[in-house]
Amino acid sequence: MTESKAAGKTSRRKFLLAAGATGAATIAMPQVSRAQTATLRMQTSWPATDIFTDMANQYVTRVNEMAGGRLKIDLLHGGAVVHPFQVLDGVHGGQIDAAHTVTVYWYGKHKAASLFGTGPVFGFNANEGLGWIYQGGGKELFEELQTEIMKLNVKSFFAMPMPTQPLGWFKKNINSADDIKGMKYRTVGLAADLFQSMGAAVAQLPGGEIVPAMERGVIDAFEFNNPTSDRRFGAQNVAKNYYLGSHHQATEYFEIMFNRTKFNSLPKEHQAILQYAAEAASSANEWLGMKQYSTDLQELINKDKVNVHRTPQSVFDAQIKAWDGLIATLGQDPFMKKVMDSQKEWVRKVVYYNMLNATDYRGAFNHHFPGVLKG
Predict the structure, then answer these.
(1) Are the beta carbons of 20 and 203 closer than 8 angstroms?
(2) Gap between the Cα atoms of 341 and 353, Å rounded
(3) Helix extents (H) in the chain
């Protein structure tokens, strides 16, 4: 072999080794995002001790861990910057970057907001309602409400299919719908319209103000959301009659909202994390609720000696009738009619399948736990 050929082979060998080393380094060292670190201030509508704050933290944890330190959410409790009912204004105006809330808290700005969480009962549960939002046209209609009708500088995602909200807490027994007439009752959103049409005098209050209002006699009865929230803020100390089941808020979800300008300024990967963390937290929230709500209901019964009842059928019937009147009135607004028509189309198809196909869960429960279910 000549000296020039040997030198050529050595050069090629060095080049191939160098190229191999470079390739190995590329494989061993994946691309690291150069996205600028961003911190978002998110305020909830909830007191620090509420389980909803725990659920907001489940969302924040998922965002912060998936972002690997390049995107961070700082969670603030209800009232830290703005009033719990005013987070929409805070996010829209940029006083806070984000909020963990429910649409019903701003239905006073447009009643259609309540259709995305506390609207008429057409037969779908909250999980089926989230299906409508994500697969049945709901998110597109909500986007239309935010951007075209209300001109809001807000971008929102939905999470957590909440169980049916109880009729609530009463100082006296409720035997029929007539017992609600003249009662001073706390609720929110379109449920306020519903109970007013049933003859109640309604007060709309944040969760942290409910028990003091009950103690002062400002209200006679109230609902908030679930056994855990109710027990944590001391509902059992101001009333002993707790009625489960109602048509007033049968399908509600969290709204996780961001200032749209802020959201749009983020890298696409951060936007994706904020979006998909809502879907991940939705499942985590639901499973936490299954555990904690059922546990606290037993604590209310066995430790706090609360009288837990199933809401009388006459109340359900009166609520359905009252909803019929509200649907006719709300439907005079073209956008609200479009939303309700979309929901009914989804329900007619999806709930028909689910109800026709679902097994007899009640029968199975009664077989294994005879005498436990009453009413």
Answers:
(1) no
(2) 19
(3) 3-28, 51-67, 87-93, 126-135, 138-144, 190-197, 210-216, 227-232, 260-265, 268-302, 313-330, 334-357, 361-368
The Cα angle at residue 210 between residues 205 and 211, in degrees rounded to 5: 170
Q: How many CA atoms lie within 13 A of 333 on its CB side?
A: 15
Amino acid symbol at 347: V
Read off the pTM.
0.87
Q: Kindly report, residue by residue over 37-49, the tens digit of the pLDDT.
A: 899 999 999 999 9
Residue 192 CB-half CA count within 13 A: 14
pLDDT digits (tens, 9 = 90+) for 280-324: 999 999 999 999 999 999 999 999 999 999 999 999 999 999 999
What is the set of domains in the chain, with CATH numbers? 38-163+251-291 (3.40.190.170)
Which distant-in-sequence residues (6+ apart) come within 8 Å of 356 by Cβ? none
